Amino acid sequence: MNSLAAEERLAFQHSTARLLADRSTEVDVRRTMETPSGYDADLWKAMADLGVVGLIIDPAYGGAGAGPVEVEVVFEEAGAALLCSPLLSSGVLAAGLLQALDDEDANLRLLPAIADGSLIATAALTGPRGTWTPGAVAVRARAEGDACRLDGRASFVTHAHVADVLLVAANAADGLAIFEVEARAAGVAVTPAPTFDHTLRIAEVAFDGAPARRISTSRPAWDAVEEALSLARVALAGEQAGGGRRVLEFTVDYAKTRLQFGRAIGSYQAIKHMAADLLLESESATSAARHAAAQLAASASDAKAAVELAAFACADAFVKICADAIQMHGGIAFTWNHPAHLYLRRARSDAQLFGAAAFHRERYVCELEAAHG
Amino acid sequence: MADDAAAPVTDDGLREEVRAFLENQWTGLLQGETERKAWFAKVVEARWAVPRWPTEWMGRGLGDVQARIVESEFAAAGATGTGQDRTNLWANTLLAGGTQELKERLLLPLLRGEVGMCLLYSEPGAGSDLAGIRTRADRQIDHFLINGQKVWTSYAATADYGMLIARTDWDVPKHRGISFFFLPMKQPGVEVRPLRQITNESQFNEVFLTDAICPEENLLGELGQGWGVLQTALAYERSVMGEGARGPRSGVAESKNEEPLIALAREAGALSDPLIRQEISKVIGLKKLNALNTARAKAEMKQGTSSALMSLGKLAMSRILHEEARVRTMILGAGSLLEGPDFPRAEDANFLTLNAYFTSIGGGTDQIQRNIIGERVLGLPKEPEVDRDIPFRDVRSG
Ligand SMILES: Cc1cc2nc3c(=O)[nH]c(=O)nc-3n(C[C@H](O)[C@H](O)[C@H](O)COP(=O)(O)OP(=O)(O)OC[C@H]3O[C@@H](n4cnc5c(N)ncnc54)[C@H](O)[C@@H]3O)c2cc1C
């Protein structure tokens, strides 16, 4: 896969960090997460102008031509800032899926608009079981002359409520394929679902004879889905590593300044030792996320294993850091006004998206078996 | 030769030079001590043992990046002996603090692996709190007289020298009155008594020091400045402990080209058990994460400043070893009730269960590592120490 030169990557990281420090503060996040759309359209435009939305999109289609390493770096920043945005859905998952399928017409039609932020796309890849495996797909496609129609339902579709285009995995007569559907077409019902993580948007999508366009590809469609999911998992891993690091930072700062029994609580070992253990979690998550990105970018033979490892290690680490952070803060972190629970909500959601930790652990062992088979 | 070695080389030039050396000299496997020592001598002579060191001491004055090229070429050939500028605790401590005389006498033999060494730090009354030692070193005309008792001293029975901390000033606070020595072990004033370990082995010992003699030139650093020398030595020790520990000891081979836990589960018919697969995945994941952390820490750090981040490695390794032993036991089930040569897998699981404490207690316990990480890395306030600033004479012990 693609990569940028190191200086270019740093520039992306710094400009993203600056933009988010400015426009995705805690106040911004709290405001945005309560809006119906769940994202800040002006910030979205600014991110697109910066090149972040079209980060992985080929320059031929108006993108920056970057790859997993840059995605990981940008999502570390997004995770730290609890960014509310369809970036993962549109810029990573949908754009990644289109590029993996490589249908020239579809690319020309969709990628430039995804890159400049004027079109939001997302992928509907799993049914009510929410396992992100081909067996869980609950949409069927039927041919109708030259056109196709979809029936059935897709669940846990991220940012579907603001999407213009859905890329839908559906079972056709000749096997699983990916279909392009106008999100606001007749026969498509997008029902937003209430989410535990208010910074995330998820919808249930029902298809009832929805008009669809089949995206052609020379490879098995689910292989392309896996490729896109790998990229999305690297993005999530970066988000988890970045989010965990931020939570640990503000927790350690608090432990240095909160006094009880005449001493900073961080001088007590019960607190200090938790912090030390969390530093190990945080550093390990960072290592895992960056390694997965690097291996994927290099198309290394162990890239799949590295992504599986990052998927469960970063998910578990982020949840643990957030959960322990609340305990270490005491009552203050039990209040809605304290940011710790916002991160815990994000961590618990990220840990389910695109497959849970146990699923990735199983696949990790499979990869290791295969590597030595 | 020395000048040549110091001249800057390109990465490619260096790589070629290492490869040529290994191609001409490295035979593959080393059988026994004699061959091992002969090989190490060759590596030292060719200046590959400590490429980061100055040329004066058989180094090449290389930066970290180039030294890693040397290490990776050796690793690719399966050859040992290089990278000692990171891993040879004894030689690095001596280089940092030793007198010219002592360095001339011992540095190269240490690199060649010809000198048996041990660590004379812990005492019955001073373990985690090493600054509380009561072994004394009293200055005579041209030597020090050492009196006291050390304990848990690994490999003391075969050691030629011990890195010793002893108190030389009782009237200053505890960290300030300590000095650091290379104590000759083969002398009448040093009595070594083996202790039987929980692993049923006897590597560690009690060491009784009665008017033992330590030559003046064997003092490292200034008199009373031994605590600083000790910190350097501990950093090297912990960084090595963070990278690994002893493996199974049964001698019955495990699959070489497969993860040991997967091979063990396969052999035990447990590889299809989903619960065991989850546990295996966790442990292998932890190992891989530690390796990735170490690689990242090394890439981000210069040599010698490793203490804090490497403390993370030792803490991680201690968890890995305990977890790996637990999962081995889980895979064997009732099989782990047994021991002895007829049951090598049980022997290994049970040995590893016990030996994991070597890493979680030795070299500073997990609790002490967490204190260090919390205070030195995260900057959390220290716990009040009641005995920190009073003359050691007045400190309570027990
Ligand atoms: C296999 C093995 C080999 C060893 N080899 C050597 C050797 O070669 N040379 C040598 O000098 N020593 C050696 N040691 C000794 C080792 O360094 C000490 O055992 C260790 O530092 C702990 O000291 P202690 O045993 O006195 O326990 P203590 O210090 O008495 O500790 C007892 C318990 O109290 C806890 N504790 C103590 N202080 C604190 C604190 N401030 N905060 C929180 N918890 C605390 C400890 O974590 C531990 O759980 C070896 C030990 C082992 C197990």
Written account of the structure:
Chain A is of the alpha+beta class and 373 residues long. Helices cover 53% and strands 16% of the residues of chain A. Chain A is built from eleven helices and nine strands. In chain A, the strands form two sheets. In chain A, strands 1, 2, 3, 4, 5, 6 and 7 form a seven-stranded mixed beta sheet that branches. A two-stranded antiparallel sheet of chain A has the order 8-9. In chain A, a hairpin with a 2-residue loop joins strand 8 and strand 9 (263-264). In chain A, helix 1 (6-23) runs antiparallel to helix 3 (41-50). The radius of gyration of chain A is 21 Å and the shape is globular. With 398 residues, chain B is of the alpha+beta class. Chain B has three domains: 4-87, no CATH class; 117-230, Butyryl-CoA Dehydrogenase, subunit A, domain 2; 260-377, Butyryl-CoA Dehydrogenase, subunit A, domain 3, CATH 1.20.140.10. Chain B has helices at 2-6, 11-25, 32-45, 64-77, 84-87, 89-97, 100-111, 226-241, 260-267, 274-300, 307-332, 344-361, 366-377; strands spanning 117-120, 136-139, 143-154, 161-167, 178-184, 190-194, 204-215, 219-220. In chain B, the strands form two sheets. Chain B has a four-stranded mixed beta sheet with strand order 1-4-5-8. In chain B, strands 2-3-7-6 form a four-stranded antiparallel beta sheet, with no helix packed on it. In chain B, helix 6 packs antiparallel against helix 7 (100-111) and helix 6 packs antiparallel against helix 8. Chain A binds chain B through residues 252, 255-256, 263-264, 266-269, 271-273, 275-277, 279-280, 283-284, 286-288, 290-291, 309, 312-313, 358, 361-362, 364-365, 368-369, 372, and chain B through 257-259, 262, 274, 277-278, 280-282, 284-285, 288-290, 292-293, 295-296, 312, 315-316, 367, 369-371, 373-375, 377-384. Flavin-adenine dinucleotide (FAD) binds at residues 118-119, 121-122, 127-128, 152-154, 204, 357-358, 361-365, 367-368, 371 of chain B. Residues 118-119, 121-122, 127-128, 152-154, 204, 357-358, 361-365, 367-368, 371 of chain B line the site of flavin-adenine dinucleotide.
